[in-house]
Structures are given as C-alpha cells and as structure tokens.
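Re-running the complex after MR caught last week's input typo. The corrected sequence lines follow. Everything else is unchanged.
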Amino acid sequence: MATVIDTLHADRRTRGSSEGEPPPSGPQPLYKKRTPIYPKLVHGRWRSIKWLVLVATLAVYYLLPWVRWDRGPSAPNQAVLVDLDHGRFYFFFIELWPQEVYFFTGLLVVAALALFLVSALFGRLWCGYACPQTVWTDLYILTERLFEGDRNARMRLDGAAWSLNKLWRKGGKHAVWLLIAVLTGGAWVFYFHDAPTLMGQLFVGEAPWGVYLWIGILTFTTYALAGGMREQVCTFMCPWPRIQGAMIDHHSLQVTYRADRGEARAPHKKGASWEGRGDCIDCDQCVVVCPMGIDIRNGAQLECINCGLCIDACNEVMDKVGRPRGLIAYDSDAAVSARTRGEKPLYKPVRSRTIYYAAALAIVGAVMLAGLLTRSSVALDVIRDRSPTFVRLASGDIRNGYTLKLMNHSDALATYRIGFTGPPGARLRGVGVDNVGGDLQVRVDPDGQAAMQVFVTAPDDPSRPLSAPASFKVTSAASAVETKTVFLSGDQGQ
Amino acid sequence: MSEPREKDEHTGTETTGHEWDGIKELDTPLPRWWLWIFYATIVWAIGYWILMPAWPGLHGYTHGLLHNSARAQVVQDLKALAAQRGAAGAKLQSATLEQIEADPKLQAYALEEGQSIFGDNCATCHGQSGTGGKGYPNLRDDVWLWGGSLEQIAQTIRFGVRSGDPNARNSIMPAFGRDAVLPASQIDDLTEYVVALSHRKADAAAVARAAPIFQANCGVCHGPDGKGNQAFGAPNLTDADWLYGGDRASIHDQIWNGHGGVMPAWGHRFDDATIKALAVYIHVKSGGGQ
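Corrected-run output:
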C-alpha cells in the first residue's frame, strides 16, 4: 500500500491533513492531543445504504433473541440461544454440543476468509458499513445531531460558554447515549437466557447477578467506545486496519480520489473556465463529512474505513458546479495510474489473490456444510485407558479398557447397540451395562449422554501387532456411527 | 536532544533515526488518552493496595480492607463441594455396592469420586494407574490376594492388611530361612518346587525332595496344589503373577525372609460413602469381576 501512496501522492502528503492545525514548530511532542471531529450530515447513495445497513444490523441484534423456534418439549424454543448452563448452542435448526466446538472454529475461519476476499475485492467494506463500532458510532452521531445540530452548530456549541441551552443539549445527548448503551447490554444477555423469562426477572431484580454485570460491562463499552472514543478505536485500538494492508493491492476497489481528474485543484468561480485545471474545487466537503477526520485526497491511508460518505459529499458538489460525478469514487489505484498515463483503466477482480481467497473460502465452507449435513443424531467418543495401556490376566489373555461416551443428539429416548471389531477372539464387556449377544445395549435420554467403562479381552497372540486396529460401532433404529481406536497388547519399543 | 531530528517527508512525523534496508522508523506520538489510561492503572494499583493483601512487613503483611484470603476461599469452596456432594453422597450411603455399580449414573459418580480419592491416597503405593509394583498388588488385573468381589474389596479398604485394626486382614508368611525354621538346602529345593508349580523347567530331583516339605510347611495356606487361598491372603503359586517377583532369586528371597506388606485401615479416615465409591472404582477398573 505504501508504494501506491508514493507513486501517486508523494507530492501532497506533506500538506497537513487536519484543518486548523498549526504548522509544527520546535521538537515534536511525545503525546498527541486528540483533534475533535465534527462529521457533517451528507445525503446520497452511500449514506442511504449505510442507513439501511444500520437499521438492518441493529434490528437483527435487538430482535433475534425474541424469535421463537419449536424444538419439542425437551429443548428450549428460542431460535438463537447460547445455553451455558447446559452446554448447548442453538441456532434455528442447528444444535451444537461442546464437543463440536470445531464448527465455531470453522465459522471463524469462514468469517476471516470472507473478510480477506471482500477486502481484496472492495476494500474495507466491513469497517465502513457493518462493524459494530461503525454502526453504533453512526447511531451515536445521529443522536448527537438531534440534540446539538449539524457540524457548525456543534462546533459553536462546544466553543460556547456553559449555559442552560448547552446544559440541556449536552445532558440530553448523554442521557440518550446511556439509554442506548443500556439497551445494547440488555439485548446481549438475552442471547444467553430465555428472553421472555429473563425480561421478567430483570424488571423485578431477580435475574442472575452475572446478567447485571454483563449489562454493566456492555453499557460501559458501548457508551465509551461509540460515544467517546469513536474513530480512536479504529485508528489506535483495532488490529484490523494493519492486517488489511496485506489484503489490499493496486486492483482493490477503494474509496479513491481520482487525482488524474481532480488535479490541479483550485477554488472555482461560477462561470470561470475549466480549461487547464482539475475538477477539484478544494471545497473541503470530503473532509468535513469524514467520520475519521481525514483527507481522502491524500490517497489510501490507515484511517480510511471505506464508508463512501466523501463520495456522496463530492457528488453533491460536482452536481452544483456542473461537472460529472465520481471525482471521488470506489476505484482502484491501478485504474488511476492507468488514466494518469493516458491508458484505458483495466479492472481485475479475478487475480491470483482473490482466486486463492475464494478457493479457500469455498473449500472450508463446503467442509463445514458437509459436516453439518452429514451430522449423525448419535456421536460416540472412545477414550482409551492410557494408564495402564493393557493388562495381562492370570489366564494370559490381554485386556484393554475404554471409556465410551455416547451422545444422543435427537429429542427422543433411544436404545443403542455397541459392537466391537478388532483382533480375532476379542470379547467386549461393559460394567453395569446390558450384554446382548456379544454387543452392549444402552438407553440414552433425549438430548442426553451416557458414559461407560468397557473392557475388551483377546487371547495373547504373538503374531498380532502390538497395536492392532479396532473400532466401536453404535447402531440404533435411526442411525449408525463408527469410531476407530486401537487394541494394544504390548508397549512399543520394549 | 541537541540536534533536530529528521522529519519524514510524507507524514511530517519525526523518525527515531533507526533505519533498516532503507526503511525508517517513524516516531509517531501516542494519543494523549493512552497516557491517561496509564495513569488510571496507577490509581487502580493504589486502590488495590488498600483493598487487597499487598505489602509484606516484618510481622505479616497488610490484609487490605476487603480481607480477601485465598485460604478462606478454599475453605468455602470445600464447604460448597460437600454440600453439592450431599445428595449423591447420601445415595452412595444408602445403596448397596451392587446397586451402585448397576446404576449408570451412580456408577459414573462413584468412578469420578473414586478416581480422585484413589489418586490422593492409594496411588502412593499402588501407582497412579493402579498397576502396583513389587510388593504392592496390581489392582487392574484379575488376580486378588484377599478376593476381588465388591464386598471383599470394600472389606480390605475398610480394615486394611496387617494394619493393627482388630478386623484387619492378617496372615504371616514365615521367614523360613532367617528364623531357621528350615535348613538352607531345603529352601533351595522349595525354590525349585515353586518354579515347577508355575509350569517352568526345574531340577526334577530337587522338586521330588521338596514335595513332602511343601505339603508339611506351605500347603496349609497355599493349598496342597499351590493354588493359594484368599481366606488367608495366600497367593496362587501356579499362575504368572508374582507379588515379590517370579525369578528364582526372588522366590528364594521370599521363602527365606517371608515379606508381608501393610495397608492402612482406611475406615478410620473415610466415611462409608467414600469407601463404597473407592471399592466400586477399583472393582470397575479391574474389569468388574469379569
């Protein structure tokens, strides 16, 4: 990314980016005072999309815990529920057990790869539109605007002496901010408990203390991060801006100031000629609407979240001065370079980077999907007794011990037969378990599990490998699953 | 700093002067709130000193206003554990050993508790895996000195072996050589006889000489055929399992010195439910009598 800036914008980077900043003199200070940002309201296509995404994501966040999903009498009827007490995660038709944590790992891998792919293709769309930090900051700025007015009014108010007017505007804003923060924390806890029940408990003060603690924590973080810290979170706390530099290249679409068209920039008087100059009239509208407080004309930079509000602002200005829209647009650095050289810009969405990301995403996604679809209603964990690995009986026979964990994922009581396949002559026995024709028979409650100690005894056969392949097979009327293990009759290396 | 530092052309930020392969390190100023967070951690630390145990002194340490004590926490946790075990513990108390083993939930509970009790108390001699060692019986196979049924195991745990408890399992293997009960030559012959009992090659003449001696001195406990007797804790001498070693030297040593181990009577330390859990654990882990 750095090379892009060098070739395109080296001549302008030395210009201070923030308005009103005095030219630096003397030794550089150790700590930098924060420059307040007053983003101006803007209208346009990207702002509308941002509002839509804001409403959609907040609606999902606040309403999802209230969606019901019938799972029968033995399971909760909340569509999305993290049941920590019983170690279950419910997501509509999916129910995951703690043993299946790899699905969460897979989900995180899919999310990361999707982010890689989107970043490589379209830049930091996640940061600009969908990141909770962006969504809640947007909501908080909306509130601020309701109480204190738009950019200029806010700047005036901050500069003014304390008065009753300032007091109620500031007080009202913070009160609504806190209310939103409490509701944010309040919605979070519903994902971990039955929402209607917890709602009742919350109001009569009978909810678990942990619930109040979590509401408190999320109230604090929402209020502090969306109200107070805002762009500081993205610039100084979040690792993603740094990581994304590795995903983005010359061909990624990003919010771009088309320097080839805009330069040389200069103020423009109505009716004056556009000959011999660029389209940028240096009105700074792209700067005043920016929630990150940067000047996009300096090129791609760490702080830019790719939200496109400067595009809307610039288009409005271009309409007014009668020039074509798109002086700032989602464009690639390669296209700008090509036009600067007088060539036709070439867009390359398909390139090795995006192919790799898409392929990895498709593979992991397919594996996850296959795993979910072929998931059996019964699971069997076989834990070999490791200490001792085997026992030699008085008769000379060899005995191995196993702990079997049988999990019934279905919502019905089920009877399972467990059989063993391994060395010839091996006999399977369980302690306190019914034995039917050499197999074990176990009943497991709906959504329940059973653990049992079993032993396999086989004649001592010197010709058998010390570690012989073996397996346990569970069958029921509805399903069958096989788990591999080994039968040991000696220690390797002795 | 005497000299003004170099400024980076693109960002207007000073560099640290460090340079690697033409890449220069910028000295970007930290945001001021970062410094405030640092001050906040100092304030937090002072609050911590006041509230929590913090400073060592000549006579003890500062206890803090909250009187937090990790030791008291452990005591409280143990109480909570006892309360939690109450219900299941009561069931262990009332159920018979067979009932505990046949009920999958109760068995699972007994196994969990038994494992931790075994690890804390029994593993010192019998080993973490329960496989014992020389002089300490293996509890994972199907060979038992004093019997391997649930009741017999519970009895052994409760009263111990040669523990001094009036109900302890007692038996004495005489030191035939050390106490000069038998002459050395006869002990050599007996060694050959015991080797022959366990189906190995032995000196036929010595075996023949030792046969009447074995019947007169050993058969009372170990049985005329040498198959042992669990009532006296007398080991079976015809199998492949040896508590004190199965080679000639070890067998000779055992006849000469008559070793006998001691196991404490755990009934003095554990309540009935704990002993039941332990007995079920040992029984299940040794194959459940099968």
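None of the earlier attempt is carried over here. Chain A has two domains: 1-10+34-66+101-375, 378-488. Chain A has 16 helices and 16 strands.
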